[in-house]
Amino acid sequence: MILCDRLTKVYNGIPAVDDLCLEIPAGEVFGLLGPNGAGKSTTILMLVGLIRPTSGACSIGGIEVAAHPIEVKRKIGYMPEDVGFYADRTAAENLDYAARFYGLSEAERKRRVGDLLALVGLDGVGTTVGGYSKGMRQRLGLARALVNDPEVVILDEPTANLDPRGVLDYRRIVRDLAGRGTTVLVSSHILSEVSKVCTSVGILARGRLIASGDREVLSRAAMQDRVTIDVETGTPMPRFASPEILSAEFSQDACSARIVAESDISTLIAKTLYAEGILLRRLAVEKPDMEDILLSYYTEGTA
Q1: Is residue 300 part of a domain?
Q2: Which of 221, 245, 276 is the last residue of a domain?
Q3: Which parts of the chain register pLDDT below 50?
Q4: Same domain, 121 and 152
Q5: Are residues 167 and 236 in the same domain?
Q6: Domain of 282?
Q7: Is 135 exposed, middle or buried (0-12, 13-18, 19+ CB in 10 A)?
Q8: Within-domain flag for 9
Q9: Residue 197 maps to which CATH number?
Q10: pTM for this model (two decimals)
Q11: What is the pLDDT, as a whole number, of residue 48?
Q12: 93-96: which pairs have CB atoms within 8 A and are 24 or more residues apart?
């Protein structure tokens, strides 16, 4: 659905995005992660047709953005990091104005605007947007990104000004969109937020993609030289002999241990305990959560 083919943007001889190759299939919730200045916003601006690439190309739904920007805009919804509205109009009036650009009839606009305001928790708010808090404006920005019922939704730092309730609502909305087959691209520098909503991730550092994939792919690559295994037994266990063990910490009674190895040796541990006649109570290979995985790449890419 979203394709970047050697996408590059250079400013004053310095690449903000450098030879980016990326493919996001339909229905994916993809997180574009990286520190400030990594090239996330520049990538998004090229994807939505607001700036042209120096070289390479990007396309959405098979349509090249630079060649057909208006056609692409009909297919996408976009929420920038800094959301702007007409301050002297209400939320409903702002959304109705945006909906007119997509050729919706008056009846369709009224229905769509009402549904979206309810979705983001702004139904019944009759004040003009000039009196809104940052969080309320962020909610309205999400509603505006959905006004044309887009095939692709692109969100730049979507939780920046949201309170905890707003964040939960945002996560729910993104999951509902994905459940309907909508492709969602979320750009953020917040590790925890990306890990909560995204099914796959691309990590940018200094304009280059340093890692991409789902949790399992990233986990295998990031933790391929280190596996942590927790062991609990009914009676004291022996010290395990394996050249793959990097470290082993045993409890004082030797009935529990935390073993770090170069690969998964849990089968060897189970066989050793069985041969020794020791009751195995628990044997667990610890998998890092998504935030741990992302942090390992994040640290590597910014070092």
Answers
A1: no
A2: 221
A3: none
A4: yes
A5: no
A6: 225-287
A7: middle
A8: yes
A9: 3.40.50.300
A10: 0.77
A11: 96
A12: 94/129, 94/140, 94/144, 95/140, 95/143, 95/144, 95/147
Annotate the chain with DSSP letters as a single string.
-EEEEEEEEEETTEEEEEEEEEEE-TT-EEEEE--TTSSHHHHHHHHTTSS--SEEEEEETTEETTT-HHHHHHHEEEE-SS----TTSBHHHHHHHHHHTTT--HHHHHHHHHHHHHHTT-TT--SBGGG--HHHHHHHHHHHHTTT--SEEEEESTTTT--HHHHHHHHHHHHHHHHTT-EEEEEES-HHHHHHH-SEEEEEETTEEEEEEEHHHHHHHHTTT-EEEEEEESSPPPPP--TTEEEEEE-TTSSEEEEEESS--HHHHHHHHHHTTPPEEEEEEEPPPHHHHHHHHHHHHH-
Q: Can you read off the two tokens belonging to residue 134?
A: 């940052």
Predicted local confidence at residue 215, as pLDDT: 65
Query: Is 297 inside any structural domain?
Result: no
Count the domains in the chain.
Answer: 2
Could you identify the residue written with the tokens 């887009």?
150
Q: Does residue 298 lie within any of the structural domains? A: no
- pLDDT at position 38 is 87
Query: HEC string of 38-103?
Result: CCHHHHHHHHCCCCCCCEEEEEECCEECCCCHHHHHHHEEEECCCCCCCCCCEHHHHHHHHHHCCC
Q: Are residues 166 and 282 in the same domain?
A: no
pLDDT for res 117: 96
